[in-house]
Amino acid sequence: xxxxxxxxxxxxxxxxxxxxxxxxxxxxxxxxxxxxxxxxxxxxxxxxxxxxxxxxxxxxxxxxxxxxxxxxxxxxxxxxxxxxxxxxxxxxxxxxxxxxxxxxxxxxxxxxxxxxxxxxxxxxxxxxxxxxxxxxxxxxxxxxxxxxxxxxxxxxxxxxxxxxxxxxxxxxxxxxxxxxxxxxxxxxxxx
Length: 191
Known about the structure:
There is one protein chain. The protein is mostly beta strands. It has one domain: Jelly Rolls. Helix content is 6%, strand content 38%. It contains two helices and 14 strands, in the order ββββαββββββββββα. The strands form three sheets. Strands 1-2-10-7-12-5 form a six-stranded antiparallel β-sheet, with no helix packed on it. Strands 6, 8, 9, 11, 13 and 14 form a six-stranded mixed β-sheet that branches. Strands 3-4 form a two-stranded antiparallel ribbon. A hairpin with a 2-residue loop joins strand 3 (29-32) and strand 4.
């Protein structure tokens, strides 16, 4: 069972990060003896706080992860993402692959149902579940396509030095994700 405490999230608030346009939002969560409720995506309120007004949602994706330690990424897709947790918690690692001074910058977060992150295109995202039965959901502004070009980087890249809470040797990682190239082999992507 998730140990999420909704009483810690009383106010909608936005935080900037070291990666340009990567935004973290604390949501307002209402809880009582029945559970909790939140507005996960309320466009007008989020845009007032800094969410790009041109983020037009066209698809909602959900990743159900049965066990703690499921690790996915690092993937940069050709669209923006609005990521949230419906149940459980994750350690999220975001890397900027866009040209400029922030190329290769890493930001990490522990996310629970009280927060969401906006990841701009050109940034790679990855996550590791910290609880069993974690539900990770994300809104995107482009439809998935098998022809889409992805930038992929290895989860264990020593240059990034991501401090995964559950070691990658003990984590559940796909063979494909284990074999992505290092950051040194990646050319900056145009956002």
